[in-house]
Amino acid sequence: MTTVKAYGATAPDSGVHPLDIERRDLRDTDVAISIDYCGVCHSDLHTVENDWGGTSYPIVPGHEIVGTVTAVGPDVTKFSVGDKVGVGCLVDSCGHCGACEHDEEQFCEEGIHGTYGGVDRIDGTPNHGGYSEAIVVKESFVLSIPEALDPAAAAPILCAGITTYSPLKHVGVKKGDKVGVLGMGGLGHMGVKFAKAMGAEVTIFTRSVSKVEEALSQGADHVIISTDEAQMTAAAEQFDYLLDTIPVEHDFNPYLNCLKYDGVHIVVGQLTPLEPALNTAALVLKRRSIMGSLIGGLAETQEVLDFCAEHNIACDIEMLDMQDINTAYERMKKGDVKYRFVIDMASLKN
Ligand code: NDP
Ligand code: ZN
């Protein structure tokens, strides 16, 4: 075991503060990584504050990890010391169930093995995330960071990127489709870039008038202020797909009305029961549907990294020192992030 510096939470109201954690000795197929950058996902905040229930403390968040390989186990074949690598939301899976066989390890029938919040499948020790100096991960859960990508801006692709790319690809977004993206945050701004790259006409639904100009300059074709009833009414039956990244409970009904018949409302943000109730007539009368989506498997995560390199897609990031994480969370709660915080882990190491 090696003791490394980290930042984590010890209770829902503790904030995130310095902690020492243990990283395991290298197993034969393990890769040891010195962490250079870690993106800050709204899921980190939900977990720290126990919004979804079930957080077990202490918790070290962070699942948008980019770093440099410092050592490899004897059976590792894909990586060598010095390689730029990434670790996203998953660190293990059973490897043999139907989902794993289809490269969708996020749906592993033996349960999801997240980068933080769960326990190691072999020794039962808690998994700790990327708000730390170093991590040890099984080779098959380590991604290659393409040389064309800026390593800091690549970090959010490992969660915000794959979570928005995967469902857009799954539903088959194509040239000419009308896609609405709900919430212009870390996930939303990546969703806009992917939907554009897939050929769609893209509209951002935002509460924030201050984000309109930037949204357009980022490639969105139109912006709708979601709190403006007249704009929402005018959007009725306009969209093939809505990608909903809103992180809190919200009324789905006004958005459902914006879908054409056969339209799909893709939920990735809200993980709590619907309130107010859903008007199912809006589904039945237009054969609309609501689907959910969860990150993506390892193969698809590598695919989206390569897609970003090929299409010159980068996350818009604001760099942060580890010590400023609690202020970053406060700003994230207010929607005041353009559009992803990334922690420079040099601030923890020095
Ligand atoms: P951010 O905080 O970066 O962005 C969320 C955006 O939603 C905000 O910028 C804001 O955009 C909008 N928003 C915030 N609060 C409200 C509100 N009360 N009402 C309406 N809109 C609001 O979050 P992320 O993009 O990191 O994450 C979004 C959600 O997705 C989180 O719940 C996260 O846990 C979840 N998630 C899900 C994953 C999955 O696999 N399904 C994976 C990763 C994250 P604007 O200012 O434009 O209104
Ligand atoms: Zn995330």
Describe the secondary-structure layout.
Layout: E1 2-8, E2 17-23, E3 30-39, H1 42-48, E4 65-72, E5 84-87, E6 90-92, H2 98-101, E7 113-114, E8 134-138, E9 143-144, H3 151-154, H4 160-171, E10 178-182, H5 186-197, E11 201-206, H6 212-217, E12 222-225, H7 229-234, E13 239-244, H8 253-256, E14 259-267, H9 281-284, E15 289-292, H10 298-311, E16 317-321, H11 325-333, E17 340-344, H12 346-349
Parallel strand pairs: 10-11, 10-13, 11-12, 13-14, 14-15, 16-17
Antiparallel strand pairs: 1-2, 3-4, 3-8, 3-17, 4-5, 5-9, 6-7
The structure holds NADPH dihydro-nicotinamide-adenine-dinucleotide phosphate and zinc ion.
Give a description of the structure:
The chain is an alpha/beta fold and 350 residues long. It folds into 2 domains: 2-159 and 315-349, Alpha-Beta Complex (Quinone Oxidoreductase, Chain A, domain 1); 161-292, 3-Layer(aba) Sandwich (Rossmann fold). The chain has 12 helices and 17 strands. The chain has helices at residues 42-48, 98-101, 151-154, 160-171, 186-197, 212-217, 229-234, 253-256, 281-284, 298-311, 325-333, 346-349, and strands spanning 2-8, 17-23, 30-39, 65-72, 84-87, 90-92, 113-114, 134-138, 143-144, 178-182, 201-206, 222-225, 239-244, 259-267, 289-292, 317-321, 340-344. The strands form 4 sheets. Strands 3, 4, 5, 8, 9, 16 and 17 form a 7-stranded mixed sheet that branches. It has a 6-stranded parallel sheet with strand order 12-11-10-13-14-15. A two-stranded antiparallel ribbon has the order 1-2. The longest helix is centred in the last third of the chain and has 14 residues, at 298-311. The two termini are 22 Å apart. The model has no long low-confidence stretch (mean pLDDT 97). The site of zinc ion has 4 residues, from loops.
